[in-house]
Every structure is written in C-alpha cells, then in structure tokens.
Amino acid sequence: LGDVYKRQMQNTIFSKIQAKYSTFSPTHKKIADYICQNYIEMTYQSISEISKEIGVSTGSITNFCKVMDYKGFQQLHEELRRVAKDEIFPLRDIQDSITSQSLGEGAQLLQQVLDMNISNLQATFTDHLEQNFTIALNQLRKARNIYILGLRSCYALSYYFYFMLQDIGFTNVHLLSLGTGDIFDQVAGVRRGDLIFSISFQTYTQATCDVTAYFLKRGAASVALTDLQSAPIAHGAKAVLIAKNTTSTFSYVSPITILNALVIGLGRSDQEKTMRCLEEKKALLQDQHVHLM
C-alpha cells in the first residue's frame, strides 16, 4: 500500500497544483482553488456546470487542463475520479474500533492495534511527505512567529508540539485555543512573516479552517498536518504533511511521529542553543523537585 500511495501522490493533481500555483493567472488560480475545495463534487459535474459554479468560461477550464499537462477536461476529470475513489473512505473513530468484530480481546487486541499502527506508519512515509517535510522545516525555521492550532482531539497534538518547541528554546511559538477569549483576538497582529501550523483531520473543525484562512488572508504562511491533500486546511499551505490512517482503528501515531521528527529537525538547526536550553530546563526541574527521580 505504501508504494502504491507513493506513486499516486507523486503525480496527483493536488501536488501539480501546489507546484505550479505561483505561475497561474488569476483565472487559473480561481479554477485551481475550486478544484482543491470541491474536487469530490466535480466528479459528478460537467464542464459547463463547473464553469457556471466558478464563473469562468469553459474555454478557460480547457486551457487550465492543458497548462496542467492534461490532454483536455476529460483526462483531468478521470484523475479527479481516481483520487476521489482513493481518498473517500468511511470516517474512522473510536466508536468504529469499539464495535469492530475483527478485533480480539486482551493481549490479542493489543497486538492487533500495534500491527495496525505499524501499517499506518509504513503508509505515511511517501515521496510527497518527504518533500513537504523539508519545506515545512524551512518554513518553521524562518517564521517570525509560529502559531500552533489544533482543536478538539487535535488540541493534544498541538499542545505537545508547542511544549516540545518551547523545551528546545523556541520563544516565538504561540498555542492557540478556544476558551481564552475570542481566538481572533489572539491573532489580531498577524502579518506577513508569521506562520500558522494547523492540525485537523476528518471531519475537520470549522474554527481551525476559519483561522487558517484568516492567516492566509493576512499574508502569513501556513503548514498543514492533516489526512488528505484535499483537506480544507491544506488549501494555500506552503507544506501539507499527510498522516495516513489506513486501518479500521482510530490512531494519532502517524501525526505524533511527524511532529517528533519536526522537533528533532528544528532542534538540529542550532544544536548548541538547543542543548543549552535542554540543560537549563533540566537543572530548573531538578532544583524545583518536579520529578521523583
């Protein structure tokens, strides 16, 4: 499955759009935006229906297809159908795992879940992830301020990433959360040079999508950690980190692994500073008797 997904993601329309987006005309950007946001609906639409939805001519859509190296709309349409078929799967959550008849009990259940998570990790590492991981590291390194956003169950991931970045000496990192005033009050001063690291998985949190879109509108950069290239927070992102969940049991093993790799990569950017911060933190915790050992 991992090799198949590598080949698919390397040539998918979303990676092509990401690579060429900066060269598009305003009309072509409009078409590209529509594809990224509505590709599932497009598999059931004709070219004339799509042109009406977007507000461009059918000729512009045909020209866009050629710019994207397709023979015409029909070939692009066929690829959208293929991608949709690969990406549309039942929503997987803890409820599915609890009611699953294929999972055993006790130690057998533990072994099955471990095997499933290994499968997730194997499917996660793709050429697409490898390329976008490098981009994400560079974007995080040069950002003036890093804002981390993940809501509901993704808040645990966002807090972990925030905590680890602070531990290795990043003083420009901010954790966004609901419940401490309006979230937009926390980002009122966002501008070009800042970055939002957004985390969201199906079925995607509306507030995460809205805040991410606000950052892009303000000229800030975004990096997305999500499960699909067509996810709402992936649109407009400098890098899209796809954490696959290929099994019937809900798991955050893949995204937490990607976050760990980012922390290590960022820590290596200035090893002397990182080690100094870690030693200072260790001494402080010992002085305050935070740990038993």
Explain what this protein looks like in three dimensions:
A five-stranded parallel beta sheet has the order 2-1-3-4-5, sandwiched between helices. The chain is globular, with a radius of gyration of 21 Å. The N and C termini lie far apart (about 45 Å). With about 290 residues, it is an alpha/beta fold. α9 packs across α12 and α10 packs parallel to α12. The relative contact order is 0.12.
List low-pLDDT spans: 1-11
DSSP helix count? 13
For the secondary structure, the number of strands is: 5
On the 0-100 scale, what is the average pLDDT? 83
How are the strands ordered across the major sheet? 2-1-3-4-5
Largest sheet: 5 strands, parallel
Q: Helix and strand string, N-terminal first?
A: HHHHHHHHHEHEEHEEHH
Amino-to-carboxy terminus distance: 44 Å
Beta-strand residue fraction: 5-15%
Structural class: alpha/beta
Brief write-up:
The protein is α/β, with parallel strands linked by helices and 293 residues long.
Q: What are its keywords?
A:
293 residues; alpha/beta; five-stranded parallel beta sheet; 13 helices; 57% helix; globular; disordered N terminus
